[in-house]
Specification:
single chain, signal, 2 domains, 499 residues, alpha/beta, five-stranded mixed β-sheet, TIM Barrel, GH, Cellulase (Glycosyl hydrolase family 5), Nuclear Transport Factor 2, Chain: A, eight-stranded parallel β-sheet, 13 strands
């Protein structure tokens, strides 16, 4: 009798486990837990992804209501579908297309990827706005009317051979398959060129590039201190400056955590600047890691967040879209960088058409690049001071009536041979000569207010002598006292304001 009883007990336990497993599975279905395509994704916590599709109310009655969860899942699928298309065209790899595309869309994307590799062409979706059009009752098919900003360009050995940026309108159809929503087809029905012309800029800039002494570069926004900034802005204004240049890294303003607080801090900084009689030159996308087309939509999200704040403040003189973009040509390709710049410029014009735009090129030889796209031309002048006047004159001839502002000049008071502080007077003398040589520009901005006790290795590199040199460009020493260069700047800015 013991054996049959044992078998019965085993059977009951097995049945109970099966029921429990079925119940757990049903519960997972009811709560719509996240499904992972790869085991590694399930085992590793995944960061929350930004919503790259803006949803509008449906214009027609729907068979099934669209929830906020539906919008998030379908929006993510749409965003990732176009990112996959851009990535496949850049790399020639089509296997990744099946993750977010299927049917007609996948077939066309594979053909487009092959053509892109053959002709060196690209298509990048910058932004999407969607209106639900149809949602099947069983949740298997979704259609949306989609408005997209799209960049199309061709690369050559010489750089950018062709570029266009348009607002496209069409119908996207998605299928809810075993691994989630996938784009089945997209039918473009209209396209219009985006506006790229600005409203111009006029004015005179006497400015200083700014980081707090103890929290420069990446430490600035995490260590935001309104009292420190107010004190520093008072010192800048006391030197006769009328403007301050600050840096807004993308990741600080798009991160799932902290972005809202950083936007509030940005608004506070702009208010402080106005209070001290300073305009602001915000510099975007500083220390950008790369130009992969699959990330451009997140760049647009960043613009959507920061530009309205800048536009509303009334404190902004002009916006520097990218710091020293020409230094990225060698690694990423001049054509790729220029295509990105043209795309970002067009989107910025749409978001904040009244803000003047420029790019702070690293050297005078690059200053005329894309000059027709910008409201003013700006560059940095660290080359030998003996040729500063001639470089400025050459740029002014190249760009015609465009105002020219030199947004960075500077001299370190550290000398690798004689050591700090032996060259403070040399710093003052060199700055005096450069300011005089650039007096015919519409503006000059000094690098930088402070010496820095802690230099960001990611910004300047790890070489000890470079870090030491970069720590000593300030007008103010680490102990808070002024170097001789501060008085030189005060006199030069005073003469500038008197014409």
């Amino acid at each position: 009798m013991k054996r049959p009883i044992a078998l019965i007990l085993v059977g009951l336990v097995t049945l109970a486990l099966a029921v429990m497993a079925a119940g757990a599975g049903y519960e997972r279905l009811q709560t719509r837990q996240t499904e992972y395509l790869y085991i590694a994704d399930a085992l590793t916590p995944q960061p929350e992804k930004a919503d790259l599709v803006v949803w509008e109310e449906a214009r027609v009655p729907l068979d099934r209501p669209v929830t906020s969860g539906d919008e998030k899942r379908v929006g993510q699928a749409l965003a990732e579908a176009w990112q996959a298309v851009a990535l496949s065209q850049a790399r020639g790899e089509t296997a990744l297309l099946s993750v977010r595309l299927t049917g007609v869309a996948q077939g066309r994307a594979e053909i487009a990827a092959a053509q892109a590799q053959e002709h060196n062409t690209r298509m990048v979706v910058l932004s999407q706005r969607a209106w639900p059009l149809f949602f099947h009752r069983d949740g298997s098919v979704f259609q949306a009317e989609v408005e997209m900003e799209v960049a199309r360009y061709a690369l050559s050995d010489d750089g950018l051979a062709h570029f266009s940026v348009t607002t496209d309108r069409g119908i996207a159809t998605l299928m809810n398959e075993s691994n989630g929503w996938r784009l089945f087809s997209y039918e473009r029905r209209a396209a219009e060129p985006m506006e790229t012309e600005g409203s111009g800029w006029s004015g005179e800039i006497r400015g200083v590039n700014y980081y707090p002494a103890k929290t420069p570069w990446r430490a600035f926004w995490p260590g935001f201190d309104v009292d420190v900034i107010a004190k520093d802005f008072a010192q800048i204004a006391g030197m006769g400056a009328n403007s301050v240049r600050v840096f807004l890294p993308r990741d600080v303003f798009v991160a799932p955590e902290g972005a809202g607080e950083n936007l509030r801090h940005l608004s506070m900084l702009l208010d402080l600047a106005r209070l001290h009689g300073l305009s602001v030159v915000p510099t975007l996308f500083d220390m950008r890691g790369g130009y992969g087309a699959q990330t451009w939509a997140e760049d647009v999200l960043y613009l959507e967040r920061v530009l309205p704040v800048l536009n509303a403040s009334g404190a902004v003189s002009f916006v520097d879209l990218k710091n020293e973009a020409d230094l990225d040509f060698a690694l990423h390709g001049a054509g790729e960088v220029e295509a990105w710049l043209r795309s970002i410029t067009a989107v910025a014009r749409r978001i904040a058409p009244d803000l003047a735009l420029t790019v702070g090129w690293a050297k005078a030889e690059s200053a005329a690049i894309m000059a027709d796209q910008f409201d003013l031309v700006s560059y940095h002048d660290y080359a030998p001071v003996e040729g500063a006047r001639e470089r400025l004159a050459a740029v002014q001839v190249q760009v015609g009536d465009k105002p020219v502002v030199i947004t960075e000049i500077g001299v370190s008071s550290y000398n690798a041979v004689f050591g700090f502080p032996g060259s403070e007077r040399g710093q003052a003398k060199m700055l005096e000569a450069r300011l005089a040589a650039l007096s015919e520009a519409q503006g000059v901005m000094l690098w930088t207010l402070h010496d820095f006790p802690n230099v960001d290795v990611q910004a300047v590199g790890a070489k000890p002598w470079v870090r030491r040199q970069q720590s000593a460009f300030g007008l103010i020493r680490e102990d808070g006292t002024e170097k001789p260069a501060a008085e030189v700047v005060r006199k030069a800015f005073g003469a500038f304001s008197r014409g």
